Amino acid sequence: MEKYIIALKTDEDLGKEDFVRSLIHSWCEEIDERLRPEYYGLGEPVRKSISEDGVEAVIQTWLTKMRPMLRRKSKPKFIVDINWRKEKGLDPRIFPWGCYVWLDSVAGDTLALKLFKFLILQFRPAFGSITFESENREKHFITYKTNVGTVEQFIGIDVGETLPGIYWVTYFGPWSVKKIGRHLFEKVPVAGVETLAGGFLITSYERSKDIGSELAKKIEKKLIVHFGPANFFDKSSLDIEK
Predict the structure, then answer these.
(1) Partner residues linked to 41 by β-bridges
(2) What's the pTM?
(3) DSSP code string of 115-157
(4) Average pLDDT, the chain
(5) CB under 8 Å to 204, separation ≥6 — which residues?
(6) Residue 34's Cα: distance from chain center in Å?
(7) pLDDT of residue 12
(8) pLDDT digit string, tens, across residues 40-90
(9) CB burial class (10 A; 0-12, 13-18, 19+) of residue 176?
């Protein structure tokens, strides 16, 4: 079954107690019941029960042992992985941290968008997107051979010199808006535009079922031209052998 991929990139301190408590309480107790996580853990398999252990156990796991992964077993199912650590170290990326959700497509577009907007308000990302798992691989997954064998990896997903791309739904946070130019968001071609958390939520085409279609590719290309091709990663221009 196809899955939505919800991705957000941020430089927020995800170890602050206020942030952790707000996120976990809101996600487990306040958001739409169909989007609440049911299990947590420090890695897969994610099988500690939130209903049995309590929300405070999830919070303390995050604060004392790094962040937990979250999981929902009831429909619509999802897995959440939050890429974060206490020290940035030598990591050169401007926005090194991320939140990734693999959400079953049975959720439907309305719930997927509701979860995306909730996470934007919590994480205050520089950039975010919703697409399908298959398109994420098409746009960002490469394989190449080295002297030790075949390497597989996702590329172009970080925010910095370029942005990852344009998708079914794309969120440009304040940093990305400044990079591209706020004036270009005043009249966006072919897309729905919504202001959110100081940035802009761009819906390229109405339904996720159009992801990967010729229509979708045409609209995404038009938006990339509008915002400036140099601002976006382009896998087709990559010299993989080099």
Answers:
(1) 69
(2) 0.95
(3) HHHHHHHHH--SEEEEEEHHHHHHHHEEEEEETTEEEEEE-S-
(4) 95
(5) 166, 167, 168, 169, 170, 190, 191, 216, 219, 220, 223
(6) 19
(7) 94
(8) 999 889 999 999 999 999 999 999 988 889 999 999 999 999 999 888 888
(9) buried
The beta strand positions in 11-77, using DSSP E, are: 39-41, 48-49, 69-72
Q: What is the mean pLDDT of residues 100-110?
A: 98
Look-up of token digits 């604060």: 63
Token output for 164 = 């990852």
Please state the length of the chain: 242
In whole angstroms, give the CA distance from residue 66 to residue 189.
42
Which tokens is 44 given? Answer: 């897969």
Using DSSP's 3-state secondary structure scheme, residue 36 falls into: coil
- Within 13 A of 82's CA, how many CA atoms are on the CB side? 26
